[in-house]
Specification:
The chain is built from 4 helices and 7 strands, in the order βαββαβααβββ. The protein is an alpha/beta fold. The chain has one domain: NAD(P)-binding Rossmann-like Domain (Rossmann fold), CATH 3.40.50. Bound molecules: nicotinamide-adenine-dinucleotide.
Amino acid sequence: MSGRALITGGAGFIGSHLAALLLGLDWEVFALDDLSTGSEANVAHLVGNPHFHLTVESVLSPSVVSELVHKCDVVFHLAAAVGVRLIVEQPGHTLLTNVRGTETILEYASRFEKPVLIASSGSSKPRWQASRWRSTATGRRRAASAMSATSCARWTA
Ligand SMILES: NC(=O)c1ccc[n+]([C@@H]2O[C@H](COP(=O)([O-])OP(=O)(O)OC[C@H]3O[C@@H](n4cnc5c(N)ncnc54)[C@H](O)[C@@H]3O)[C@@H](O)[C@H]2O)c1
């Protein structure tokens, strides 16, 4: 199957490689990136491809997100504030980008009924304490909450 894919964070490390992969599989790729930590250099080899489109804008822009999600068949949401230094130095910016940005993507994906893949990592989760985990009926353990206070640093011992 091929179609139209929106990659937020498409000029980032993973996004640019995903874009190249999908183009090789005959997908049309729309990359949305504000170039805050990504770079046009990451997608310089794709820019001449008529099936690759780079929009330099933020996932926090509802009108841009709406238009792109509407025209695509699937969304890969990779745009995020990442990197320990950035997150520690700009916690407000980090929350805005990662929480509201994801909310915006999910809102329009839901409205236009498009599937979304969201990338995450262990770094995005709080440091768990034993009491924060609970067992489910199936015996598997899962998190009681996906967020914690910003005063609880994820990276300290
Ligand atoms: N690289 C890894 O090893 C790894 C591992 C696990 C999970 N992840 C997750 O995958 C995702 C992508 O990681 P990456 O390594 O490619 O990071 P990256 O920093 O290279 O890519 C993130 C991209 O998002 C863009 N961006 C940031 N804020 C934006 C905004 N408001 N609007 C539009 N674009 C914005 C940046 O400019 C950048 O190009 C992140 O969510 C990260 O947590 C990465």
